[in-house]
From TrEMBL, chains A, B:
InterPro entries: HAD-like_sf, HAD_sf. Residues 1-19 form the signal peptide. This is Haloacid dehalogenase-like hydrolase. The lineage of its organism: Bacteria, Pseudomonadati, Pseudomonadota, Alphaproteobacteria, Rhodobacterales. It holds the Pfam family HAD. The keyword Signal applies. The keyword Signal applies. It comes from the Bacteria. CDD domains: HAD_like. Keywords: Signal.
Length: 324, 324
């Protein structure tokens, strides 16, 4: 009995050791570099060994862990939500941008740039408790479908990145999201979609207030945006919230440059990773000229900084978690 | 051999099960209530079982985990630091408050209340990188001694609370500090003193900026205080940073009331704990009239809310970690 158990255990361990932790990644140099980095920092005999407590890995969300075209998914949520709110009270549509948003005119809102996005988010995200807001997001996620793929948005996570997150955690890393997206929005799906719990999600946020509503202490979302977790805000937020400098950082746009720059400039082994959207057939091909997820700095300077530039078309044999 | 090993293992487990997790707590009702709460929420058979992910415990620091008399220890640091900075440049002492602080006049600074405290902190905490600031704090902690006890400040942690933190972690809780004290100040000693890592410390903070200094990406502390982690700010900060409602909250002053109120008003089993400073012989006796750590609401309303009101003189057989 004991011998049988030992044999089973050993064969099980052998199978685990031999398994490919990143099956949706093709066997390219980029995959080798990722695995080699992880094996080095987790090898107690290696000069570059890193203790588990310092194995902090941070990832942007939009365009890095899930899609972001034709516009950020949270903006689509905001437009749908605004249309819903305007059914009850059309007077909330106080500008052409808000009217276009409620009418579902993606192109018009997209043309307005960051200012229009913030206006639509502002008009649709505040004035409720955090709990009520997150229920609205959950209900939306359950029924909304992406205009191009027809998939639920939370099934448009990138399967290769979901595997990378799991692989890093299996190797003792703590994985975090550090995104320009809304903190409360992301927390609704990130634990199921990525295995990342609420306390490891950093994002943009409005102020909140603590209020007694019908005798119940409640956290209420205030209007406006108090902190935008983008560009230099990312390293600042990581330092403030985590208090450790990550040794692994992944992103896809110029908004992630400072985060990767800071993470990879530290002492010891470090890895930066840029997801380059090269696959117009299976996803979207965009970089330097895209209004969403523009990528210049990472392409210009990332290779010299030693970052892995993921070529989605070549490096990934599968894109979305929700579609083979 | 195997049998010997099993016997040793069993006796070891038995010893662990029988050991008192809180040896510095006297066998009072309060100790019973704490242990009974922890045993209930960790018992998979109990109706009130709580999964490990939701076992979040939050604690104020000043007056709850370590001393805070005659003034907040961070204020003493700020005054010492200001005196040091003024040796190089006396012109920084631009007010009577700052002159009194640099001269070590605790009474004069104390009389100025919160405004004076913030002025002294402002003048002594900014303009350096986070890393350089934390080195200054570490150097100060190594040599500074408390005016009454003669102890290093980081040995004036409360041994019963250090035991409680460890006990909670042993039972699958994640322990956090949520303090009005400075985030970067606390992170210097909290991991050694309490076993609480940087990413589980919430506190007040100044803004920071991300700057390239001599080619090195650096996080620099800005002047001013961007967020004061006190009163209603505590539940707001917990919701923003942790994203879960704690099931255990400990504090000692009116600044902690909202945090305990929010934590204990949730569904399911909850425990609030107030450290009441009743021991003038071994520590300090203060509550309703103290300028530091004033406690009214917790005494008036805590018992009806089911909170444990710790009577330091009766409940604790030892006070400081650094002195028997």
């Amino acid at each position: 009995m004991t011998r049988l158990f030992s044999t089973l255990l050993l064969s099980c361990l052998a199978a685990t050791a031999g398994a490919d932790p990143l099956p949706s990644w093709n066997d390219t140099d980029n995959k080798d570099r990722i695995i080699s980095f992880v094996e080095t920092v987790t090898d107690p005999q290696a000069a570059d060994y890193v203790t588990p407590a310092e194995r902090i890995a941070v990832f942007d969300n939009d365009g890095t862990l899930w899609g972001e075209q034709p516009v950020y998914f949270q903006l689509i949520f905001a437009m749908d939500r605004l249309a819903e709110l305007a059914q009850d009270d059309p007077s909330i549509l106080t500008s052409d941008t808000l009217k276009a948003a409620a009418a579902g005119n993606l192109e018009a809102v997209g043309k307005g740039g960051t200012g229009a996005i913030l206006e639509v988010v502002n008009a649709s995200h505040s004035g409720t408790s955090v709990g009520a807001f997150q229920q609205v997001v959950a209900d939306w996620l359950a029924k909304a479908r992406h205009p191009d793929t027809g998939l639920p948005y939370d099934r448009m996570t990138y399967q290769p990145m979901v595997e990378l997150l799991r692989y890093l955690r299996d190797e003792g890393f703590k994985t975090y999201i550090v995104s320009g997206g809304g903190l409360h929005f992301m927390r609704v799906f990130a634990e199921d979609a990525y295995g990342i719990p609420p306390e490891q999600i950093l994002g943009s946020y409005a102020d909140s207030s603590y209020e007694m509503i019908d005798g119940t202490p409640t956290i209420v979302k205030s209007p406006g945006i108090a902190f935008i977790d983008d560009k230099a805000g990312k390293p600042v937020n990581i330092e403030r919230t985590i208090g450790r400098r990550p040794i692994f950082a992944g992103g896809n746009s110029d908004g992630d440059f400072a985060m990767l720059e800071w993470a990879t400039a530290g002492d010891g082994p470090r890895l930066g990773l840029i997801v380059h959207h090269t696959d117009g057939a299976r996803e979207y091909a965009y970089d330097r000229d895209s209004p969403i997820g523009r990528l210049n700095d990472g392409l210009d300077r990332g290779p010299d900084l030693g970052w892995v530039i993921v070529d989605m078309a070549k490096d990934w044999n599968r894109i979305y978690t929700g579609a083979r």
